[in-house]
Write a structure and sequence with these properties.
The structure is a homodimer of 671-residue chains. Chain A is α+β, with helices and mostly antiparallel strands. Chain A folds into 2 domains: 129 residues, Butyryl-CoA Dehydrogenase, subunit A, domain 2, CATH 2.40.110.10; 366 residues, Up-down Bundle (Butyryl-CoA Dehydrogenase, subunit A, domain 3). In chain A, 54% of the residues lie in helices and 9% in strands. The first copy, chain A, contains 23 helices and 10 strands. In chain A, a hairpin with a 2-residue loop joins strand 2 and strand 3. The N terminus of chain A is likely disordered. Chains A, B: Belongs to the acyl-CoA oxidase family. Chains A, B: Pathway: Lipid metabolism. Chains A, B: This is Acyl-coenzyme A oxidase.
């Protein structure tokens, strides 16, 4: 059995040798630049050396996974890894990427406190909340965020928890089970404080949804405070099982009025509600920025989901051999066009959405700086709307792609993809809720179409970031295929945006003319009109920004390959819109559709020798991917066998019982 | 807090009252007729009464889930529930349906022994294996099936385990780790016997892949026999975690030549290999029937996946209220067109694919009876090919739809869909491998296009079941919309079949003319040609057979609603093909595409008042669905809250440790 040492798989290094570019350069380009990459590698090494960060080869129980996350969180503090955005932005940014790639659960454990809780306190609180922020930053208190209620998720303005001003205090109540706060990460076991949203009542009048910070557990005993009931929501699939999502009920819970996050409003000493908001819309815009930040971050979940799918799927498919020409060896399955079709567009999406997100974060940081500096300009208002519109459709686009990518990668890895140690199902389950949180994708995308409709209605044809500049162009139908496929795709998208925008506008008007209210009219004009409009807007912007980023790359070879990657992303995104392009009359006859399809096949073929090296450039370290199928040494079979050998069985735990059944069956009379 | 008793959800009974048909009649129609339904209900009641069949509200560890499955298997034997197809076909058929709906893992535990092991022994063995079959039927031995190897799944002809005739015995060897038998359910802990496929060597000559039955564990001790190594493959996602999928290595394992399943071949006493096969193809056709049976069964997994998705998704969406007109109550989300789009096509797919599968099983049983009777006719050969072709594309179509349905249902249920107690992620993971086993979908679908290509090439324009009768028609492009939308859809599909068949044929010829071998040519002509051809063939047959079944329904009201359901299934299946219909010139301009899209919207609207009652007609009992969101009483919120209240938390298990960290942070100098 000496042949036991020979791998039945093909060599990854052989694939690597086919690439046309320098791997190190590509890696820096695709991982945020050399400085960021150096920091990332530093953090990766700290984690890899510590056995606590080794991923177990089995599903942990809820209790086990939460304890492990608690221990890992302590280690992160112990190592002084950067969790505070304001104290060390570069470090924070690099470490955030590392956490996102490593484990969504641990990332959430840290981010819900350091990012979401502190962020909301900072943006909605005032001087009187500074001390709490300081304590939170030093982890002397643990925060959580309570907005969603059992019966209100998307419609946050209708939440039903009340905070009533009574005798100089605020009294919190949950009027019925539907008002139970739910899904609050860190609440069930760790949190000492909660950021709570509730309807504020002063003098018997409802002043609408406000934010409050309240203590939920005793500082000394860590027991839940009187007037509150807190519990766990049970198990969830994937990494998020390690997050203690909690529920909370208020039973006449009293606290000081200091709990009110009073930026722009307050309760006076004599019990009156005062505010500086011009309108409800104005009040809501305070938190608009913070909400966009969450969504832009979640675009990164789509990037990471595609990254993991491409890493595991492509490496395994490069190694796995199956079938071959009648008189030849079996071929790596990645050489089959059908297998390339399943995986290369995922790789392209990860890279292009990553480049898009890098730029988006840059622009958003500049925007936030202007906002925090107190700037008040019409251009900033326009920018707010644009950031909101763009994040509302790119978050759905990226997360839908990411979850679909992991599902496809599992299937593309065949039966072995279904092993726990492939990690693909666990990853799919982990990324699954990204389609829902911070705005259910289908509902969120409506914000983008609403933005475009409103811009058009107001006759605003340009925008600060330039994403609506297509409004200045006249839509021209297809005249002939351009040598650069990207120009064809962009022209088609611009036409499609005009078409779906005009069609949605008209459909809305028709509905209103026939007596529908605005609410009904909007709901009836989503499918086939507003929805593809929002997606096309997201996709075109991603494609354009990715291409702009690639144009700026100095290294010729890297740039050349990435130009192809952008083109593959572009044609693969356009494919599902072909029907509308034909129905709407952008094109007739076979040429346009056939060209798009041929272009995608050709790009998948030409990128085939590059793809293993491209995966190396985006992949997380092996200990973080932790997939038997996706290690960088290409030893998928050996990894599986090592795990299998550790599970050799002689007798089942229930063997005696089984023998009893078998014996009994031997003596049982025949039926 | 008296309002705690008021549900924040809408009433399912109100939805039910809108339906136009009799629920009891519909239930019998959609669950295989009154007799079968009566048996199903009887078995359901036996299981529901036994606490062992209550589903736990948490993920079980691998050990726990396997023990539970072992115990449930014992109960199934104890209750004498019908597992033997030949002893009691009606009971077996009804109980199989119950098991499939209840738990795929338990179903597999039973089916792998009673169906797959016994079935293979029966079809490939002879008189000398009768005793083993008898023992297996009485559960005096436990069987498993070992075909797949670590490095060979799809390409089964290339497996590398060897069975060598030496000195009157057979010696089994695994020449390298790639030849390790893997994925064999029941092998790791329970099996006493295995159905093993290996390359047979007699007199130094390889006679190709043969089936053997070998004993793997000692009868008295249940220990693994010498010469074998057996182990577990570790955890899997979903229900299949309870199946002990095993691996096995042969280290000069010796046994009698009786192990050879010798139908049509044998090893003589003087050590010569003899056979009655005319060709390799002929030899393989022995098992063709059995393989089709597996696939036809798996179409049912697609049906059940859609059934579960529709049950949970539609019931929850009928209850869940969110948003509403400015001055009105919030509306059940199922009233929004976008939500209907997500769920109603799933309901339609479950119903139509179910009707298709009922007919397919009927026809297949007749086919098998003819085969077993020893009939040898040209028509039976044609029927074999047709059964193979049709099962090879309907299995992929159904399982892809099923898995996608569960993913969509989870997202359509929003955040609460992500709770373990919604079961949707677990169900998705459970059905996930149906896309891979008994033929990876993408590879399997090629068998269907190959069948159609070969029929056309041979000029055979009709088939025993009539599925290729489209070959007799002349493809006519779209002339105008017919009043009955189904006629439009069928005409478009028939055109599409001609188009993709001709295109695939031409592409293959082009490839061969340019010097490609047949293998390469086939691989290069899948995407955009052979693949959509196979899918269109599956979909059109499903649509036609579902419509035929509906036409035979006596009850006017049920028939009328189901006619609409078939039409919804038809237009929703056709939508992804619109691009090819335009590229190929079936239609030009907006009419055809717009009509298809409008028709789908209109059908979703008209079926909206029927859908909750339709779900009742296909749903499994509440204890089997076991989803907090999908109970038939519509008390989704109450179910969630009951689970949450059972998880009330005062202090975390790691509270003391957490307090220590917090204390330490208080005294730590500021960074």
């Amino acid at each position: 059995m000496s042949a036991f040492n020979a791998s039945p798989g093909a060599s990854l290094d052989e694939w690597r040798s086919k690439a046309s570019f320098d791997g190190g350069k590509m890696r820096a380009i695709l991982q945020g630049g050399e400085d960021k990459l150096r920091l990332k590698d530093e953090y990766w090494q700290i984690m890899e050396k510590d056995p606590l960060f080794k991923k177990p080869n089995r599903h942990l129980s809820m209790e086990e996974s939460r304890l492990l996350t608690h221990q890992r969180w302590k280690k992160v503090l112990e190592y002084g890894l950067p969790c505070d955005m304001y104290a060390n932005y570069e470090g924070f940014s690099a470490f955030s990427d590392v956490l996102e790639e490593y484990d969504k659960g641990l990332q959430a454990r840290i981010q819900l406190h350091s990012g979401v809780f502190v962020g909301a306190l900072s943006s909605m609180g005032t001087e009187r909340h500074k001390e709490l922020i300081e304590k939170a930053n030093r982890n002397q208190i643990i925060g959580c965020f309570c907005l969603t209620e059992l019966s209100h998720g998307s419609n946050t303005q209708a939440i039903q928890t009340t905070a009533t001003y009574e005798k100089g205090q605020l009294v919190f109540r949950s009027p019925h089970i539907g008002a139970m706060k739910v899904w609050s990460g860190n609440l069930a076991q760790s949190a000492t404080h909660a950021l709570v949203f509730a309807q504020l009542y002063v003098g018997g009048k409802c002043e609408g949804v406000h934010g409050f910070v309240v203590q939920v557990r005793d500082e000394k005993t860590h027991r839940v405070l009187p007037g509150l009931r807190i519990g766990d929501m049970g198990e969830k699939p994937g990494h998020f099982n390690c997050i203690e999502n909690g529920w909370m009920l208020f039973e006449d819970y009293r606290c000081s009025t200091d709990a009110l996050l009073n930026k722009g409003c307050d309760i006076t000493a004599d019990g009156r509600y005062v505010h500086a908001f011009k309108s409800d819309r104005d009040k809501r815009s305070v938190s608009l920025g913070a909400l966009s930040m969450g969504r832009i971050g979640i675009v990164g979940m789509g990037v990471n989901a595609c990254r993991a799918a491409a890493t595991i799927g492509i490496r395994y498919s490069a190694v796995r051999k199956q079938f071959g020409p009648p008189d030849g060896d079996e071929l790596p399955i990645l050489t089959y066009p059908l297998q390339r079709r399943r995986l290369l567009p995922i790789l392209a999406a990860s890279i292009c959405m990553g480049l898009f997100q890098d730029k988006m974060i840059d622009l958003f940081s500049q925007y936030m700086a202007r906002l925090l500096s107190g700037e008040k300009s019409d251009e900033l208002v326009e920018l707010s709307k644009e950031v909101h519109g763009l994040s509302s459709c790119t978050k759905p686009r990226a997360t839908w792609l990411g979850v679909a990518a992991l599902a496809e990668a599992r299937a593309a890895c065949g039966g072995h993809g279904f092993l726990y140690i492939s990690r693909l199902n666990e990853l799919r389950d982990t990324y699954d809720p990204s389609q829902t949180f911070e705005g259910e994708n289908n509902i969120l995308a409506q914000q983008a179409s609403n933005y475009l409709l409103s811009q058009k209605k107001q006759g605003i044809v340009s925008s600060p970031m330039g994403t609506t500049d297509f409004l200045q162009t006249r839509p021209i139908s297809f005249k002939g295929w351009n040598a650069d496929s990207l120009e064809n795709v962009i022209a088609a998208y611009e036409w499609l945006l005009h078409y779906t925008l005009t069609k949605t506008e008209k459909a809305l008007e028709d509905r209103k003319r026939r007596g529908d209210d605005a609410f009904t009219a909007r709901n009836e004009t989503q499918i086939d009109t507003a929805h593809p409009l929002a997606l096309a807007y997201a996709e075109l912007t991603m494609i354009k920004w990715a291409e702009e980023a690639v144009k700026e790359i100095e290294d010729v070879k890297c740039r050349s390959v990435l130009h192809q990657v952008v083109r593959l992303f572009a044609v693969s995104q356009l494919q599902p819109h072909l029907t509308l392009l034909y129905i709407g009359g952008y094109c007739t006859g076979p040429e346009f559709g056939t060209r798009v399809k041929e272009e995608q096949l050709a790009l998948e073929r030409s990128l085939s020798p590059e793809c293993v090296a491209l995966v190396d450039a985006i992949a997380s370290p092996d200990f973080a991917v932790a997939s038997a199928l996706g290690t960088s040494d290409g030893r998928a079979y050996e990894n599986m066998v090592a795990d299998f050998f550790s599970r050799e069985v002689d007798r089942a735990p229930f063997a005696d019982d089984l023998l009893r059944v078998i014996e009994a069956n031997k003596t049982k009379p025949k039926l």
